[in-house]
Amino acid sequence: MKSKVxxxxxxxxxxxxANLLPKVTCSQSAADIAYSQWNKETIxxxxxxxxxxxxNANKVKGIYEVSNGGITGTLVDVRILFAVLLxxxxxxxxxxxxxxxxTLRPSEADKSLTQKIKKAxxxxxIKVLDHLIISPxxxxxSFADNGIL
Length: 149
What we know:
- This protein has 149 residues and is α+β, with helices and mostly antiparallel strands.
- It has a domain at 30-106: Cytidine Deaminase, domain 2.
- 26% of the residues lie in helices and 23% in strands.
- Strands 2-1-3-4-5 form a 5-stranded mixed beta sheet, sandwiched between helices.
- Helix 3 links the parallel strand 3 (92-98) and strand 4.
- The longest helix is centred in the C-terminal third of the chain and has 17 residues, at 108-124.
- Keywords: Hydrolase, Metal-binding, Metalloprotease, Protease, Zinc.
- One of its GO terms (molecular function) is metallopeptidase activity.
- One of its GO terms (biological process) is proteolysis.
- Residues 23-149 form the MPN domain.
- This is DNA repair protein.
């Protein structure tokens, strides 16, 4: 008997030409892009973890929502995160999540997750450029700027 398996397809749809994509030049530009794309109706309600996919010129290919959580946390499956990065041929990534409370101090869980993703990225030649915590008013905390990446 012949075995059958499902075919897996992941799609990427982008109509913006590469020369028109926004370029990340510093943590502030990344935070501005991330905040402009965040749903302002939910940013104060629950944590959301996203990734900003960058090409080799640090232009933003897109932003992917990895997980939605509760008031004080969200569960990030690193395997799903890297499945998206690998399938989209992303060369660099900026990790993003919000703190609904407005507190910009990273938790130990935030730091641990960042290190786990960075180690996996090193293995796969995907640069983790930063991890930004976004507040509901648009302020941000940059792991890279604060030397903990």
